[in-house]
Amino acid sequence: MDKQAVNVVRIVQLAQKYRVESHIMRWAGILRFFAYAFPDGFTINDWNNFGMETVDKDIIHGFLHVLVDTDFITELQLVYKVVHDNELQRLLELADVVLRTQKTLYKVPESRMLWSIPIGTDVPTNIVSSFHYINSWIIETAQRATRRLLIVSPYYTESGMKVLEPTMLALLRNRPNVSMEFVVSDVAQEANAKAFRYLLDFVGHLHQKQIRVYQPSSVTNESLWFHAKFLVADGESGYLGSANFSKRALDDQFELGVSLSRSQAETLERLVDYWIQCGSLVQCGFL
């Protein structure tokens, strides 16, 4: 058995032992974020502060210890550093595929309840365990996109773009065929304009051709004035909920949402495509 196969088996065994099969791809998204957000390394406290982790710290330590043995992550005095991000993502994707085939052990639910909630909010543990965090789910879903990432919201902020920046940069750099498409109610609105100027600055000229921004053909057109917020990756998975793409909504206030099944994600993608094709949504010229 080659080294990669051994590593996959170890991750699968750890996930099955501690019943954390459904966490592997969420953790993959967190590690991809950390590769860019913490180039000098991260600690378990960074991990917990980012993901509001409900899994025991000892399990996280065990998971990271396995990854250190793969040489894709290094560790020095409990500071971990991702050194081979692409190889690490492929390894975790392989482990996830193996886990998904173990249908008696790991059945992916059609829908998951998602939330963001202020730290310190009093919620019983048995309720907390029923939710995944919106921020982590969005990052996990986005980093799986291979064809198209569609993000729809009436309101974006620069701080929200900063939350998503490492994931979007990794996606654009590693998958040059991916298009990243945003729908906004009014791109000229001050917060939206500032957010998209920031987006164009951080992606740079090299990747701007992968970015498209759409808005209603007339921002006063009541027939297509929307308040919906959702994200769809490749028409296969996604998020639908109350949170705008702002840091406050993703991290600091109470928001609710659900994950999307494949048929639901495909339907929302087709709906947006229809509005683009019939001219109800138009690409913003400033790009």
Automatic annotation (TrEMBL):
One of its GO terms (molecular function) is catalytic activity. Residues 222-249 form the PLD phosphodiesterase domain. GO terms for biological process: phosphorus metabolic process. It holds the Pfam family PLDc_2. This is PLD phosphodiesterase domain-containing protein. It comes from Ferroacidibacillus organovorans. The lineage of its organism: Bacteria, Bacillati, Bacillota, Bacilli, Bacillales.
